[in-house]
Specification:
Structural class of chain B: mainly beta
Strand content of chain A: over 45%
Oligomer: heterodimer
Number of strands of chain A: 11
Distance between the termini of chain B: 41 Å
Number of helices of chain A: 0
Radius of gyration of chain A: 13 Å
Chain lengths: 115, 115
């Protein structure tokens, strides 16, 4: 079982550049979540999808952030333009949502540094 | 608004010294309470889900318990490899909108076990 796969694992970019983070959920899972983790704010949910449809994007900080899920096995989180305050670890998680137990399994994260 | 508070923020123990971590929560109808372990540089790793007051679950040296207002993670005779940040999260009951339900995380307790 490959688990949730994220790429890149580390990203260093300059302010104003576009950043794209990628996620492949666990095969068979129908829900996908994007989180951001910082020392100050902890783990925050940005957006989540169910059956490839965005359900709740209220955690997306501003219009510079966008997320897509074109199919069940791939999602992207894009920041354009990036700012230093976007520096954080971004996690993707997936789950099987059926109305019963809905355990989320996390990927290894992408550590983003915006200079 | 759903809220999770974990205490203490950090805990340092000697190997073999048992203790408990606390997770207090307020949620509009609890669907599940989750415990995760996070090692430095890695994503959260699922430990337990608790669904109703009085429920208990165990895994090796860890035991999680749940009341109507809080959950405890008891660590018995810990070893250095139990050192990690332990995260608690709540999942609210289903709303009218079907789909995956989001988790609200606490800030975590950073546990260090000295040999």
């Amino acid at each position: 079982d490959a688990g949730v796969i994220q790429s890149p694992r580390h990203e260093v970019t300059e302010m104003g550049q576009e950043v794209t983070l990628r996620c492949k959920p666990i095969s068979g899972h129908n829900s996908l979540f994007w989180y951001r983790q910082t020392m100050m704010r902890g783990l925050e949910l940005l957006i989540y999808f169910n059956n490839n449809v965005p359900i709740d994007d209220s955690g997306m900080p501003e219009d510079r952030f966008s997320a897509k899920m074109p199919n069940a096995s791939f999602s992207t989180l894009k920041i354009q333009p990036s700012e230093p305050r976007d520096s954080a670890v971004y996690f993707c998680a997936s789950s099987w949502s059926s109305g019963g137990e809905e355990t989320q399994y996390f990927g290894p994260g992408t550590r983003l540094l915006v200079l | 608004e759903d809220q999770v508070t974990q205490s203490p923020e950090a805990l340092r123990l000697q190997e073999g010294e048992s203790s408990s971590l606390n997770c207090s929560y307020t949620v509009s109808g609890l669907r599940g309470l989750f415990w995760y372990r996070q090692d430095p540089g890695k994503g959260p790793e699922f430990l337990f889900t608790l669904y109703s007051a009085g429920e208990e679950k165990e895994k090796e040296r860890l035991k999680a318990t749940l009341t109507k207002k809080e959950s405890f993670l008891h660590i018995t005779a810990p070893k250095p490899e139990d050192s990690a940040t332990y995260l608690c999260a709540v999942q609210a009951a289903l709303t009218l909108i079907q789909g995956a339900q989001k988790l609200v995380f606490g800030q975590g307790t950073r546990l260090t076990i000295n040999p």
